[in-house]
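Chapter summary example: a protein plus tryptophan.
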Amino acid sequence: MTGFKVTPWEVSGNIDYDRLVQQFGVEKLNDAMLERIKKHTSDLHFMLRRRVFFAHRDMKFLLDEYEKGNKFFLYTGRAPSGSVHLGHLMPWIFTKWLQDTFNVELWFQFPDEEKFLFKQGMKFEDTQHWLNENMLDVIALGFDPKKTHFLIDTRDAGLMYKEACKVSKRITFSMVKSTFGLGNDSNTGAIFYTAMQAVPAFLPSVLAKKEIPCLIPHAVDQDPHFRLTRDILPKLGHYKPASIQCVFLPPLSGVEGKMSASSASEQAIFTTDTPEMVKKKVNKYAFSGGQSTIEEHRKKGGNPDVDVSYQYLRMLFEPDDKKLQQIYDDYKSGKMLTGELKAILIEKVNAFLKKHQAERVKAKSKIEKFLIKR
Ligand code: TRP
């Protein structure tokens, strides 16, 4: 398949990220920009070094302001609709690094109406259940409760709705149609929704009564929302938000599309999976770049570039460049077998999940600390 599709509601096909950069009009993160970021962080996160975060909007503006002493805040989010999987964690782990390194506030939005409005059969009771579950995953990653604020659309509507109206007054139906492909048959909640996703990009400025720059780390499929947001915010007297954007973690089956909770559940690894489930999923479903027999593999070697286990190590689980390179070389030369590569991944994932699941249990008593006082 050569075609691909990337929208906030659908990601499919073999994604050509260079073409996507052109289509969306975002900027690639180049060496000069990474060097500039590095001046402030001393070390670059491996997701930057490896271009897992590969594109941005307005990072120059953000760093100009930062260097003048005008600190930014971070904004990201999650529409509760199902279990959190490894693909969701990628931008959040990076966001946590940004929060720690720059010592900045984070506003984390849970638009608990989004999937109710967009998904057939999704009830509000369902989104409330997933809201609770998903908050545990975010807290489990270790965000600092003193600097992290959860904005829950229905709970915090009193704070958000007026601002959303100001945004939506500037958005016509035809803008929403062309940006998101919505049509005359779309429900009016879905048409309004993008205004709610715009709000956290400037609400902290409204509350502080002064303009604070905003940086949104997110997977690239959310860019259409923030393109609209960026068009409108200056008209309301706010800065355009900057953004930094990552690729998708592939599903276990291979390079097409993204890890998703709604496709077959064996294509994703969830944060609540047991060690046995992880082992089984990786061994059975993770697409392999290996040869069909051991003999052939020893002779011709494997292809780490299409091997999903290797890609998960590169994108998420092996921060050490030297170790990663060793795995790459050994697999490519045929010295390392597919089973051995999978075993490395399984161990890494299970070690991560063991800690994550313990933190998730502790998170239950911490939710209150992240909610906005009212
Ligand atoms: N629309 C996102 C989702 O489907 C949720 C979200 C809201 C978000 N605000 C965001 C994601 C900001 C990234 C950045 O999950």
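Key point: The first strand starts at residue 4 and ends at 6.
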